[in-house]
Amino acid sequence: MSREYRKWVAEYQDQAWTLARYILKDASEAEDATQEAFVKLWNHRDNIDPERIKPWLMQVTRNHCLDRLRRRKPETEFVDYQSADERGPLHGLEQSELGNWLKRSIAGLKEPYRSLVVLRDIQQHSYEEVAGVMDLSLSQVKVYLHRARKQLREQLAEVRP
Fold this sequence. Notes:
Layout: H1 3-24, H2 27-44, H3 53-71, H4 93-108, H5 113-122, H6 127-134, H7 138-159
């Protein structure tokens, strides 16, 4: 395995998995989709501009996730993103409830809003990187992000007194 490829895996595997986790709402499926994306990266590593590896990988990961979602039956259950290990006595009840609400709200967004929020607001990618991953124009990214954030604010207003 090439040293460069190992560097890419070490550098981007967490971001790819997080994106897949938010889209698929299932840890094992997220691992599978991430692994498929890295296999594709291995197979195409010589044809990809090294400067574009990250956006290319995020786009491939997202596409694998969307393919998996299309093959699924519709589901209505909520998946809790916070494991028991992450909960502890130091987490305040209100912060925990707000965090859980936010995760549920993001998970409830429809595509492409969910992916945009994860890429831009959670993973802190630049607008240009998000546009490249999502194959959207910069103005589309900004408009869609505005709409997604508006939906999240409206949901927050419903749960907050």
